[in-house]
Amino acid sequence: MPPPESDAGAGAQAGNNSSDFVRKLYKMLEDPSYNSVVRWSADGTSFVVLENEKFTKTILPKHFKHSNFASFVRQLNKYDFHKVRHNEENGEAPYGRDTWEFRHPRFRADRRDDLDNIRRKAPAPRKMPPTEDAFPASQQIMVLSESLNATNVQIQSLQEQYLDLDRTNRLLVAEVLSLQKIVRAQSQASNELITHLNNMEDRRRNSRHSAQSSHSSHSGNNYHPATLGFLPDGTDEPAPELRRAREILNGVSPDSQADRELERLSMAYNQNGQSPADSAGSSAMFAHPVPGGMNVMHDPFSDPRHMVYPVGQTTGIDPFHADHIHNIPYSRPLSNPNVLTEAPSQITPPPKDHQGGGSLWRGKKPQILLVEDDKTCARIGSKFLSHMDCSVETARDGLEAVEKINQDAERFDLIFMDIIMPHLDGVSATAMIRMVAQNLPIIAMTSNIRQEDITTYFQFGMNDVLAKPFTRDGMIRILKKHLTRMLKDPQSAGVLDSTEIAGQQTAGAPGPGPPGYAPAMTMAGNVQVKMEQTPIQSPSTTASWHSPGRLQNPSPNFDQGGYMSAVNSSGAGGVVLTPGGTQRPPQQYANYIQAQAGQPPTLARVSDGMPMGDDRPEKRQRLYAPSQGGPYVQ
Amino acid sequence: MPDFGDHVDNGIFSQILEMDDSEADRDFSMPLVLNFFEQAEETFVKMDKALIQRNLEDLSGLGHFLKGSSATLGFNKIRDSCQIIQQYGHKQTIDGASEPNEDVCLKKITEALNKAKSDTSHLEGKMKQFFKW
């Protein structure tokens, strides 16, 4: 250990004897430009922090790489500095109120050489720093908030794991069920084959028999006994291979107990999928939720206990923030890069008609809720909307929006919802609003228009997307589309939409063509319909063996498939599925949907192996009834 | 409408001007624009602070915040700089690739912030002329 030297420079090198902290402190006090913020006291035996805030924000980060005054003070305490107390009643606060003076007997302006003698105190009473009384509140709060943050982080990761497991489990249950079906079908097929082989065998034997027994060589004789051969001969044993095969098949009896369990699980999942928070489709269409749905499994999303927000975000909660997005329990379809680049230009198609003056609306003005944290956006949006003769209310974040809806779910006809907002983001707010207002159109307003983001919006119950920066025409288009029933002249909205439908029906038919982005955007309301129908039509697992043709049918626009089929079948009501590969939704999507699927009957149908294209008028009517006359019917 | 060059998206900005009841008065658009510059000023101060503290998270949030307002008004240049600030605040490049080096992020943000400031003051001058405030 080198001996301490009087020279400061050398002292700084003095290894473990000297303290970085104390030297930094001394160095900081040498800088005359800080004089108004922190400086030596007049006699040089203590130092004074005059402007706490400035000190914390500018000087601490420079010299100590943090900006936490409390921890600075803690550090001082560790080196046995003491706060100098002034009796203020005697007017003895020489540097004014709210200043901090610290003293250490060896820390003096003129005794640089003494710095090395300032050591850390023995780390014994860690819990009780002597100045506890000086900072009790702030320290406690800090400790609390630190541990709270840690807890939050922990909860988040647990939640992620839980959701992961949950998701896997759903997938596995679905998978097992479908495998079971396949196995059953195959054993049935084997049985058929064996029977067939048996018959062949019998026939062969009988013909040989008859040929041997009757020596008459009439050709007709050969056939006659053959037909009789369908009846078991009794004397002749079937081939031993066939007998063994049949025995094996009969020997395997399914474990009915396990089957029932599986069935129950899958039902429970499906019931849960009904929850409005999870699926736009079920919420919009099944306006009457299944009463007393089993709550065996908690819906991970709508359960508020699971709502943990990204820690530390103050300006806005981005639902796509890594901390957040992974908590959302669904699998996102792959995005198509080609679609991405097209998106912005097609989202706001040029207006076909300008409604300059005069009200668009038949009776009462639509009540619009505009949820937007940015004042400029909110003002422009409100202005546009009131120009379109709507009454507008604004909410500054998701929480405020949810509160407004909770007060009166019926008050609004449509919501424009920003996505990234403080307190509660737009996607989560939508999920919550969906619990009380299933049919209310909610439009995402966002500059995040990546395909997967949009898919997320839809999956969490949003009906459409308005790209930011929004235009007046974009807003009009949305209003016309989603508030058709309120229009004075519904045709004005209809013209545009029906041509779109026509176009999409052809696109949805076997020739896939490049559907591009526009259909998804403009017809977005239909995603609801899609959510509804896909589970009925095509859990891809059943498709694979009921109509093998499907599998061979390549699906070039894989991730558009979902949209197309939605458009197709919703547009024309009666048109269901043509055996076009394009209508198959993306695989993982289908799985998800299957897990979320409608009610038990749906499942039963699927397991019955109903042909895919089967029309189900009774179901259809039920699906449409609640929202009939609403904006989703094109 | 005057030509603001590539500073302003004319389509978006003119829609806002159309909302004014009278062109002489501009009692809708003018306060909006004025308000924006105030907001920008405040945000820049906060960004400077956050830069000193190397607080990337705040920078990202502030970038997002000003990006929204500038985009809504069609102030494209400012918007683009804000986008850079937001992205690098998230430790990401503009293309969304990860950029773990905080020094690089801070440098990019500093550049973008300086550009945003100069673009803002330039645009403010032009707007001043246009609105005659």
UniProtKB/TrEMBL annotation, chain A:
PROSITE patterns: HSF_DOMAIN, RESPONSE_REGULATORY
Keywords on record: Coiled coil, DNA-binding, Nucleus, Phosphoprotein, Transcription, Transcription regulation, Two-component regulatory system
Function: Transcription factor that is part of a SLN1-YPD1-SKN7 two-component regulatory system, which controls gene expression in response to changes in the osmolarity of the extracellular environment. Under low osmotic conditions, phosphorylated and activated by the phosphorelay intermediate protein YPD1. Also activated in response to oxidative stress, independent on the two-component regulatory system. Regulates heat shock genes in response to oxidative stress and genes involved in cell wall integrity in response to osmotic changes.
Quaternary structure (record): Homotrimer.
GO biological process: one example: regulation of transcription by RNA polymerase II
Protein name: Transcription factor
Recorded superkingdom: Eukaryota
Chloroplast in keyword set: no
Similarity annotation: Belongs to the SKN7 family.
Record keyword Coiled coil present: yes
Subcellular localization: Nucleus
Organism listed in the record: Podospora australis
UniProtKB/TrEMBL annotation, chain B:
Domain of life: Eukaryota
Keyword Signal: no
Transmembrane regions: none
GO cellular component terms listed in the entry, alphabetical order: cytoplasm; nucleus
Gene Ontology biological process terms from the UniProt entry: phosphorelay signal transduction system
Domain HPt: 25-130
GO MF terms, alphabetically ordered: histidine phosphotransfer kinase activity; protein histidine kinase binding
InterPro entries on file: AHP1-5/YPD1, HPT_dom_sf, Sig_transdc_His_kin_Hpt_dom
Gene3D superfamilies membership: HPT domain
Pfam families xrefs: Hpt (PF01627)
Residues that bear Phosphohistidine: 64
Keyword vocabulary terms for this entry: Kinase, Phosphoprotein, Transferase
Protein name as catalogued: Signal transduction histidine kinase
